[in-house]
Design brief:
heterodimer; B: Helix Hairpins; 3 helices
Chain lengths: 167, 101
């Protein structure tokens, strides 16, 4: 099967957005990450996953970008300190890790295309076959909200002694 | 080389870019952004593999779980980053060597 032209362009856009994301300062990086999410959503749609594409677009390009911009405006730290490990060593580690992944995955892929089988619709998959996942997701969302609330509550408590000490 | 192999090369390259940002960066917000990049690579790998074997709906339901968990991790990490900035005055991961302040 030949790679469709549009998918190729989208993959190049994906890598370009990722490189621009890691090269930019935090606020600009948040915007490039939104572009990366949009391209990812397009690719997900092209690969036959429209439901996840919509969620990725709204969460990845919307919610996460807003939260990142909010956190950057609160933290007000645009510094880009030098890396802990030398950059050549980091590149070497990346090449070894990616090379290992390619070596393990690529030979297995031609056989995967012959495994095609009938499956249940998305709604049945989510609400019946993977109900346990859904329950875990609800628990994770609740614990996440409680975690954020406790962190905000902690900051309020930390700020209180200062305001009491002022008069 | 098949389309699937080229797609996975792109996905692994995206994973590599995210991993490099995680290894080479010291700014905590950039570390969260690097984690986001790596998660997008994982979601794409799930959907591409699911599409290849004709089980894209199963892949979508798993990807949905990944997106939810990733979002909660990002929200909690950002809340922690704001707290770290308030308490220490910086976001340099290399200087966070003590648990007490």
């Amino acid at each position: 099967m030949n790679m469709p032209f549009l998918d190729g362009v989208l993959f190049i856009g994906l890598i370009f957005s990722a490189i621009m994301t890691i090269r930019s300062r935090p606020l600009t990086a948040a915007l490039w990450l939104a572009a990366l999410s949009a391209v990812t959503a397009l690719l997900l749609y092209r690969f036959g996953a429209p439901e996840v594409a919509v969620i990725e677009l709204s969460v990845g390009a919307g919610l996460i970008t807003v939260l990142l911009a909010f956190a950057i405006s609160m933290a007000e730290d645009e510094s880009m300190p030098a890396s802990i490990i030398p950059r050549p060593l980091a590149w070497l580690l990346i090449f070894v890790a990616c090379g290992l992944l390619l070596w393990l995955i690529l030979p297995q892929l031609p056989g995967m295309e012959t495994l095609a089988a009938a499956e249940a619709p998305f709604i049945i998959q989510v609400w019946e076959n993977r109900l346990l996942d859904l329950m875990v997701q609800i628990a994770i969302i609740i614990s996440g909200v409680m975690g954020v609330l406790s962190l905000l509550g902690e900051s309020r408590q930390a700020a209180k002694p200062q305001t009491e000490a002022q008069p | 080389m098949t389309f699937l192999q080229v797609a996975f090369i792109g996905i692994i390259a995206l994973l590599g870019v995210g991993l490099y940002a995680l290894l080479a960066g010291r700014n905590l917000i950039k570390a969260i952004i690097a984690l986001q990049i790596m998660t997008k690579a994982a979601i794409l790998a799930l959907i591409v593999a699911g599409d290849a074997v004709g089980r894209v709906n199963l892949a979508q339901s798993i990807a949905l779980t990944v997106i939810v968990v990733d979002t909660i991790v990002a929200v909690l990490a950002l809340a922690l980053v704001v707290q770290i900035k308030r308490r220490t005055g910086h976001l340099d991961a290399a200087q966070l060597t003590r648990l007490q302040h």
